[in-house]
Amino acid sequence: MLKKVDSSQLKVGMYIHDLSCDWMTHPFVRNRFLLTSEDEIRKIINAGIHDVVIDNAKGMDVQDAPTLDEAQAATEREIVEIVAKAPVITRVSLGEEMQRAVQIRHQASTLVRTVMQDARLGKAIELDQVQPVVQNITESILRNPGALVGLLRIKNKDDYTFLHSVSVCTLLVAFCRSRGIDAETTHQAGLGGLLHDTGKALVPDAILNKPGPLTDEEFAIIKRHPQDGYNILLQSPEVGPIPLDITLHHHERRDGSGYPNKQANDEISELAQMAAIVDVYDAITADRCYHKGMPAAAALRKIYEWSKFHFNPKFAQEFMRCVGIYPVGTMVMLESGRLGVVIEPHETNLLAPKVNVFFNTKQNLYIKPETIDLSRGLGFGGGDKIVGHESPSKWNVDPMRFLTLA
């Protein structure tokens, strides 16, 4: 049986099933292993990992610890309460914005690729090329945040590094807008999001794209990228303090377990704390060659759990309201047994979005796509409800094909 336990309860002989942290945080070569020494327990605690999942069928037990299902159900209830009511404003439909979003995605990822190549060659960042791209992303978010955010859920291992930067920029701009941050500060935060991983240009591709966990030595090289990125951006005097701060500090954690400066609590700026949340959320929801991306709802649960120690709880909750428990592009199971992809959040009830249904799980076949509004009753374009999120790989379907209906 899987149980959630506090790291202080760990003992030699317990079997670690999940270290309950994002893949770039822990210092272990593998995620699942039998604890064989006190040194391993110290490494877990020193890495800022505050709770883990153990398997008592493979090792020692903690009698009074909640099961993983119980812990997740409790967290889920709290998240639903936080996220259910959040205003959403869109100016144009998803279909209208999607074509522009496709062009912006391509333009932005091409730019990040160029920035990385220039950084590798020792060239300074040309900010006049970056500014218009951030502006285009911001304008798309203002028209319909779901289009670009939903589109950026699609990544493959070859373009992950570049699209991750575009996603962080996009989500950070949306996060700033939802918090009512002024336009100029939002723009500077967007610049920081787009450039935050510039230092990875100096990380060897063999480490950056390694199809497996990193060794301690490789992990140490990866951990240099915030400082390297900061140094690269310093070569461009027109880069302001906000992008520099986000680049240097997006891996800091409020309990002091982050890097490169082990800043803690309010030593970390608000925008760097926001960028940290966005960075982790996008990383854990993306498919990698060695890491299967989580559904958005599961990732929000992780963010919420980690906010007890790593993130500002207030910012984590505001981010959850910003993206919603079922963001555009999320595949969901409906009570009727149909699968659908979320295409538009409801203006006030994020648990009742518009969904394009396209697959019948009871008959295991595709059905004629249809848009249903889950906020409406039966006979009024609704009459169904979400029972949970689903993994596309489980059903071998591609929900993104049905993000818009022709």
Automatic annotation (TrEMBL):
Molecular-function GO term, any one: phosphoric diester hydrolase activity
Database matches in CDD domains: HDc
Pfam families documented for this protein: DUF3391, HD_5
Domain of life the protein comes from: Bacteria
HD-GYP domain segment(s): 139-335
SUPFAM superfamilies referenced in this protein's UniProt entry, alphabetically: HD-domain/PDEase-like (SSF109604)
Stored PANTHER family: CYCLIC DI-GMP PHOSPHODIESTERASE PA4108, CYCLIC DI-GMP PHOSPHODIESTERASE PA4108-RELATED
Name assigned to this protein: DUF3391 domain-containing protein
